Amino acid sequence: MNSNKRISAAFEQAGSRSALIPYITAGDPSPAASPRLMHALVAAGADIIELGVPFSDPMADGSVIQLAAERAIRQGTSLQRVLDIVAEFRQDDGTTPVVLMGYANPIERMGQAVFAEKAAAAGVDGMLVVDYPPEEATEYADLLMSHGLDPIFLLAPTSTPDRMAQVGKIARGYVYYVSLKGVTGSGSLDTQDVEKRVARIREHVSIPVGVGFGIRDADSARQLGQCADAVVIGSKLIETMHQAAQAAVAAGQTSAQADQAAIDTAAAWLAEIRNSL
Q1: Residues linked to residue 99 through DSSP beta bridges, in sequence order
Q2: Residue 182 — very low, low, confident or very high, per pLDDT cuts 50/70/90?
Q3: pLDDT tens across 25-47, in order?
Q4: pTM of the predicted model, to two decimals?
Q5: How many angstroms separate the CA atoms of 72 and 262, rounded?
Q6: Phi and psi dihedrals of 3, rounded to 5?
Q7: 202-224 in b/e burial notation, b at 16+ Cβ within 10 A?
C-alpha cells in the first residue's frame, strides 16, 4: 500500500530541504489552546505536526515531555480528546499532516480497530506507537493502512540490520531515527555519527528518514538537515513554550493570556529553526 497522501505531499513540497516536524503534547498548555498552537506552528513553517498522546507512564520520554503529559492529563486530555483536537484543527487546515505519537495502552483500551476508524475520521495521517515493536506489529500496520493511516516506527543507534529491514517492510510515511541513546531531550548530538547511521538505515528503508531527540537549536537542526529528510524537534520547543506560560502567570496574566504567550513564543522559536533549514 502507498503512503498517506498528505505525508508524501509534505515531503515532496519540502523539496531539497529537510522537512520540519515539531512535536507538541496534545492538551499542553491546554486542550482548548492546542488547535491554535498547531495552526501557529504551521504558520511558522512546520511541514508535519507530531502530536503526543498524553500517557501516565511515558517511558521513552524525558522530564520535559513527561511534565507536559502530566499537565495535559490533569486537564482531562484523553485519547478521545486528542482526536477531537485533530478534528478541530482539520476544520481550517486540510493539508498539513498530523502524526500521533504515543503508547499502546490508550489504544488498547479504546481497541485498535475503533481507534483506527476514529483516527481516520478525525483527520490523523499517521501513528507512531513507541511500544509496538515492528516484529509484532504487522497486523496493526495493515489495520492502519486499511484506513489510510501510515504506521511509523522508531529506529535507534542500537538497531540491528534485521530490525532496520523489518521496519523497512512495514513502515510508511517516514521512519523516525532516535539519534541518541536514552530518553527524549537528553545528551548531545554527534552529527557525523548520525550521518553515518542514517546512510546505513537507507540501505534498508526506502521512505524518508526523520531524525529527532537532542535537537535543541537552529545550528543542530541545520547540521542534521544536511543528512536527514526531516528534523523532529520537541523537548526544547515544549520547554520554551512552558517557560513563556510560566512567565505570563507570574506577571499576573490570566490562563488564556498565558496560553497565548506560549503559542506566540513557540511559533517565533520554531520560525528560527525553519529559517535555519
Answers
A1: 50, 126
A2: very low
A3: 999 999 999 999 999 999 999 99
A4: 0.93
A5: 14
A6: -75, 160
A7: bebbebbbbbbbbbbebebbbbb
Q: Quick one: 195 exposed, middle or buried, by C-beta within 10 A (0-12, 13-18, 19+)?
A: middle
For the chain, domains (ranges, CATH) are 5-276 (3.20.20.70)
Q: Positive or negative, the Cα torsion across 144, 211, 208, 272?
A: positive
CA Rg, the chain, in Å? 17
What residues act catalytically?
A: 50, 61
What's the grid cell of residue 166?
523489518
Do the Cβ atoms of 259 and 29 come closer than 8 Å?
yes
Cα 64 from Cα 72, distance rounded (Å)? 13
Q: Which of 176, 173, 184, 15 is nearest to 97 (CA)?
A: 173
Kindly compute the dihedral angle of the four CA atoms of residues 185, 19, 178, 150, in this order, to the nearest 10 degrees: 120
